[in-house]
Amino acid sequence: MSQTMIIEEVLARPQEVSWLPWAVQYFFFIGIAACAALFGCLLHWRKRHDAKLERLTLLIALTCAITAPLALTADLHQTARFWHFYAYPTPWSWMPWGALFLPLFILFLGLWFAVRQSGLLRNKSDSVTKWLALASALTATGLLLYTGREVSVVQARPVWFSYAFVLAMFFSALQTFFALLIVAVRNDFQCQRQLAIWQLSALMLLAVVVAIWVSG
């Protein structure tokens, strides 16, 4: 006789396991990828262009962006049905929007990375990367909104049912991204220090959001 696993949450009633680790991995990786894309776009458009930092940011973004949909596809259980999102659109739901934003995000991010690497080999910069960076940032914003709202619209889970949940997910993902970037630039102490300041700022904002979230 098999026993059902039960999740014992602090702020919610006990419940059966509804999400396997695949879904959690998707949230983890897509959050990092989206935050990296936003940060990379900021680096690319600012006047003092840090090519090395942008390159590392893009590498983190693309790696996580490729990994995230693999975890999401595994969570679908019947992966052959993914095309239903496109064949039977339901624009009033957040799910089909995610099915739109995710491939576009990976496409723009991949093109940005490819064009930039091509420019490095040719020792020449391409102006199209600015628009690819902007497109990546816009689709990243859409992904963050979709990922947060697909959870926060669940009224049956009072802890989730809040707009603050979206911001909490964003700032928590930002912490992980900055941590990865700090490790990646371990030989540049000055850059590490600046990243640590940004990480601390994001952490303080996360604390504010969580306080508002918990207070209702």
UniProtKB/TrEMBL annotation:
Topology in membrane: Multi-pass membrane protein
Membrane-spanning ranges: 23-44, 56-74, 94-115, 127-148, 160-183, 195-214
One Pfam family it belongs to: NrfD
Location in the cell: Cell membrane
Secreted listed as a keyword: no
InterPro entries on file: Electron_transfer_protein, NrfD-like
Any GO CC annotation of this UniProt entry: plasma membrane
Signal sequence extent: none
Keywords attached to this entry: Cell membrane, Membrane, Transmembrane, Transmembrane helix
Homology family: Belongs to the NrfD family.
Listed name of the protein: Tetrathionate reductase subunit TtrC
Source species: Klebsiella michiganensis
